[in-house]
Amino acid sequence: MPRKANPALLKPMNLTPELEAVVGKGPMPRSQVVKKLWEYIKKHDLQNPKNKRNIFADDTLRPIFGKDEVNMFEMTKLVSTHLS
Predict the structure, then answer these.
(1) How far from the centroid of its chain's Cα atoms is residue 44's Cα?
(2) Is the pLDDT of residue 20 over 90?
(3) Residue 38's CB: how many other CB atoms inside 10 A?
(4) Where exactly are the structural domains of the chain?
(5) Can you give the pTM of this predicted structure?
(6) Which helix (DSSP H) or strand (DSSP E) does residue 64 occupy?
(7) What are phi and psi of 52, to 5 degrees?
(8) Contact, 10 vs 29, CB < 8 A?
(9) What is the pLDDT of the chain when averaged over all its residues?
(10) Chain segment 31-48, per-residue pLDDT in tens
């Protein structure tokens, strides 16, 4: 039996202007935010080539991350502060 999606992940969330600059206009579910974030990271080639789990922040991501490089687990935590 397939796993049920967590309803919290499907609920549309309000996004901060900083996050909307990366993923587009909200509200959107957390899962969609993360998907669009990864699309942005890959499109702009922001993964650290030496360690693909690390993401470099460009000028658009820096206000969300608050620093120049984060790992992918840290990224999810930092992004959640931009959702309400």
Answers:
(1) 14
(2) yes
(3) 16
(4) 13-80
(5) 0.87
(6) helix 62-65
(7) -60, -15
(8) yes
(9) 92
(10) 999 999 999 999 999 999
**What residue has token string 């990864």?**
38
pLDDT at 66 over 80: yes
CATH number for the 13-80 domain, one of 1.20.1300.10, 1.10.245.10, 3.10.129.10, 1.10.540.10? 1.10.245.10
41-69 as b/e: b if 16+ CB within 10 A: beeeebbeeeeeebbbbeeebeebbeeee
Q: Give the position of tokens 């000028």.
A: 59
Q: What is the pLDDT of residue 10?
A: 82
Of the candidates 45, 39, 47, the one whose C-alpha atom is nearest the C-alpha of residue 72 is 47
Over residues 2-25, the mean pLDDT reads 86
Residue 13's contacts (CB-CB under 8 Å, 6 or more residues apart) are 26, 27, 28, 29, 30, 33, 83, 84
